[in-house]
Design a protein that fits this description.
By secondary structure, this protein is α/β, with parallel strands linked by helices. It has 4 helices and 10 strands. The strands form 2 sheets. It has a 5-stranded mixed sheet, sandwiched between helices. α2 links the parallel β4 and β5. It is globular.
Amino acid sequence: MAKTVPMIIANRDILVLNKEGEFKTFNMPAINPVPNIPFYHQFAEKIAEGQYYFKEFMKGLYGKKLSKHIFAIIVPDDTSKLESIFINEFFVNSGACKSVAQMPMALALSKEDESYISLSKSSRNVILEYVRNHETMVSKIYNSSQCDPAKVVEDAKILHIDLEHKDVPVYINNFNNNVDEFFDMGTVVSAKQFMEKIAVIDVEKL
């Protein structure tokens, strides 16, 4: 039976849940941070080397039998379609899993609410989303270096026509500990709380 392995693509590294239920950090050797560019872009320069290091990392967590694993990969909310394809291909071709399933962070914030607003901040953008029935209905992206928090708060009120006639909860994703200016906007989800949600994620719903 295939085993689901939750993973999180963070701003600077990759977190993987081990057999003991703890997230362990994978850092690709010789990665130098570049402003406004996700760190994993540099994997493309040394794909074979990166896949080798990652597979060895996974062997350390789960042993040598990796072919039946399914990676449940949680990605930043501003991940582009091209980036999503690259992430999938990198891990599938690493030999460390059978297949991958991918989901943006916003969709993992709440399983209880039919609809809600999500706010997160990646290494390059602030992302505002309206989620309904586990699907992003509309999103708005702001350059994090030029973002006006007051503008984001106002935009959240008119992000979707649904919001004209019903109140929905607002979740502030503080996974990267970088959204202090938005704390008054809604319920803050800490990094610890977020990882607890991911640790029990159901791959069939990705």
